[in-house]
Write a structure and sequence with these properties.
- By secondary structure, this protein is α+β, with helices and mostly antiparallel strands.
- The chain is 42% helix and 12% strand.
- The protein has one domain (11-90): Arc Repressor Mutant, subunit A (Orthogonal Bundle), CATH 1.10.10.
- The protein has helices at 11-21, 27-34, 38-50, 83-90, and strands spanning 54-59, 62-67.
- A two-stranded antiparallel sheet has the order 1-2.
- The longest helix is centred in the middle third of the chain and has 13 residues, at 38-50.
- It starts with 10 loop residues before the first helix and ends in a 6-residue tail after the last helix.
Length: 96
């Protein structure tokens, strides 16, 4: 019998991580990285935007995203922690 497919982080967290790494990312690329549909990625970005976790700015035909890293995590057990702390744990070091 195979192992159940689950992860410790939600798709919302994964979308935030992708956008954190590339604020100009196309949602179709984010969707591929996260393993969800483009429509699901759009829904998640809309939910994150409505909740104040990110802002979307239109630049020509593309979007640029700005994260609000001071927002608290949403689960009652996690509200003492900020999104920026979570993202910092998973940030890839910048190479020059």
């Amino acid at each position: 019998m195979g192992m159940a497919q689950w992860t410790f982080l939600t798709n919302h967290a994964h979308v935030l991580m992708c956008i954190s790494e590339n604020p100009n990312a196309l949602l179709r690329n984010v969707a591929v990285q996260v393993g969800i549909t483009e429509r699901a990625a759009q829904r998640i970005v809309t939910e994150l935007e409505e909740a104040g976790y990110l802002e979307r700015e239109r630049e020509g035909r593309r979007n640029t995203y700005r994260l609000n890293t001071s927002m608290p995590l949403r689960h009652p057990l996690d509200t003492d922690y900020r999104v920026g702390e979570l993202l910092g744990l998973f940030a890839h070091p910048k190479t020059e």
